[in-house]
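> forwarded from #structure-qc
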């Protein structure tokens, strides 16, 4: 499944999980592990829902290509840094 269909499917899944879990989470309990877990879980679910709404409504083809260009540039930067570290270690071994 490609494109927006995948985001629709994941969005529906995240909303369904949230609707199913909200009545079972003890959010009104005194401050403790159960209420903290529930609030964090709901927070993560809302972040996932917001991300998929963003992907469905705001990201067009031009923005997607720009994000992909940025990802490739970051990957090249990390590869260069890793090569520098590896080359630096190999020079240190030759000296030592």
């Amino acid at each position: 499944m490609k494109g927006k269909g995948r985001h629709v499917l994941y969005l529906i899944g995240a909303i369904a999980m949230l609707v199913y879990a909200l009545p079972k989470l003890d959010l009104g309990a005194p401050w403790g592990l159960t209420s903290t877990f529930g609030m964090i879980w709901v927070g993560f679910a809302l972040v996932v829902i917001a991300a998929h709404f963003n992907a469905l409504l705001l990201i067009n083809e031009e923005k997607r290509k720009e994000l992909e260009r940025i990802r490739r540039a970051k990957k090249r930067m990390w590869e260069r840094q890793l090569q520098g570290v590896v080359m630096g270690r190999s020079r240190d071994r030759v000296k030592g």
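QC bot note: The chain has a mean pLDDT of 86. The radius of gyration is 22 Å.
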